[in-house]
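To whoever picks this up:

The parser on our side crashed when reading a file containing two proteins. I've narrowed it down to the boundary between the first structure block and the second sequence. Both blocks are reproduced below exactly, byte for byte. First block:
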Amino acid sequence: MDAGLAAILGAAVGACGTAVAAGVSGFFARSQLAQQLAAQHRQMERQIRADLATQMREPRRQAYVDYAAEVSGQLDALDWVLHALSTAPSLRSAAAERLDVFGLSSSTAYEGVLLEGPEEVAHAASELMVAVQKARSLAHVWLMSLERDDADAPAEPSRDFAAELRHAVDAAQQARRDFRFLAMDAIRADGGHPEGEQGRARTAAIHQVLGRQVWGG
């Protein structure tokens, strides 16, 4: 092989080696870039979740506190009514006044919880509202029964109103505990799972929009 041909072959081999090296370097560079973009994508998702949780936490906390305080006052009133109607003679007038001081149908605190969500907490608030309403309605039935007795109206089948009301109040107190546990979970969410499926859906939508910007879509 003469020197000229050897030089040409050497140059060709060198060029191929350079091309291969460049290709390998380009592949690893693209792989590294993809990994960096994926890491940024995950960090962005974590930040979105954390920001959502922070933005929602305070107004939700206040809505939960307002509703819990309102219901606690109602349950205290029902406890007092239970005691008042169980005494002999019963304190019917005072019990009636105590029952009329609250009305769940127009509760702005309850509406606040429904608006703030999430749906799990709103559902628990609804269950609590129903439980308190049942206890309040039962107390009114007891009052009317005592008034009929005073008016010598025809007697109804005997009922243990005290036991029924005690059971209804206990059920409402359990519903309040359930509401509190779910409310605490929603308030303490750190952004990983801010509010169950509803929150993940919103986060995914935001993430999709920002993701298209990152990837140039």
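<<boundary where parser fails>>
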Amino acid sequence: MRKARNRTKRTSLKYQDAINSIKQNPRSIAQVANEFNLQPESFRQYLHKYEPELISIVGMGQNEQGKRTMCRSEKKYKKAIELYQTTTEDLKSIATRLGLVYNSIGGYIRRNYPDAIILHKKLIQEQKTTYKQ
């Protein structure tokens, strides 16, 4: 029993500098693990277990559809996704207006939010039918 406690203390000390580094300058877990000569997957598992709030900033999370996405991407593209599924404005102009790369946001929406594409197409169809009448 005593060995388990010592191991936990040593493990937390081993990762402490890397955790502080991520808190000061958020970046990918793999990058920080390489900087501090840690095993990326072990470090990632430790963070998931003991630092869940830090993972929500830099790691993978689940979106509303249950797909695993990068939390940074989710925050970055949230406004664009909302605009895309609620307006008839094309994605290229939304990306330009918000300062995003069109190909990146387009791929992100296709992979993670196919429902947003369906909603957008329905809005466009509704707009076309109202113009014809």
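After patching the parser it read the second block fine. The two ends are 78 Å apart (CA to CA). The helical segments are 2-24, 29-35, 40-50, 52-58, 71-86, 91-98, 102-112, 114-132.
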